[in-house]
Amino acid sequence: MIVWREVVFDALLSEPVRNGVYKAKEFHGRGVKVVNMKELFGFDRIDDQPELRVALTESELERFQLQPDDLLFARRSFVFEGSGKCSIIGCPSEATVFESSMIRARLDPQKANASFLFYLFLSPYGRARMASIATRTAVSGITGSNLAGLRLEVPAVDVQGRIARVLAAFDELIDNNRRRVEVLEEITRTIYREWFVRFRYPGHEGVPLVDSSGSPPVPVGRSGGDRR
Hints:
Blueprint: E1 5-8, E2 18-19, E3 28-35, H1 37-42, E4 45-46, E5 53-54, H2 58-64, E6 71-74, E7 76-77, E8 86-89, E9 96-98, E10 102-105, H3 114-122, H4 124-131, E11 140-141, H5 144-148, E12 151-154, H6 157-197, E13 209-212, E14 215-219
Parallel strand pairs: 3-9, 4-8
Antiparallel strand pairs: 1-12, 2-10, 3-5, 6-8, 6-10, 7-11, 13-14
Helix pairs in contact: 3-4, 3-6
């Protein structure tokens, strides 16, 4: 039997939650990669997707650099459902920071499994808990203090790890199937173009082409070129 207990989110962290870095426009376009809201809302797992860069001092880089398994939350959103949207940091290949519209939470691995908490915040239960601290204004959002004080029901950390591994396996299976479908769709499009646009179907070499009312020549017979 799995025992779930109520905890305050802050008790699972290795350090206090932190808002992202803000820099004036003249510091943008060079320096280290920075995660912006486009990536946060576009990807559940963030690795090397960020394209924008920002120039930082060494102390700023130390404070705002992301690490694998950090969780990022949207501080604000134009739609209420986007408030507190959560993404997890994977393994960026270079130094990466996060901008000021986000909150970073760094979990203590002795107390919580980052992947489990990520899946928790994506679940209906997690979204409902996040909605309980989100403001309902023209631009909805959450605050770091409310996030830190959020109460959650979680199992023991070893159970969290087992649950996260099962969910990750399902995610990998879904992703593999999605890629297979994309390959099959591309194969289907290629066959269609070859057979019905370029008329390079099996045995096409022996079929003559005829004009077709101003359109490119088409095969005689079943393709509509035979007008008899």
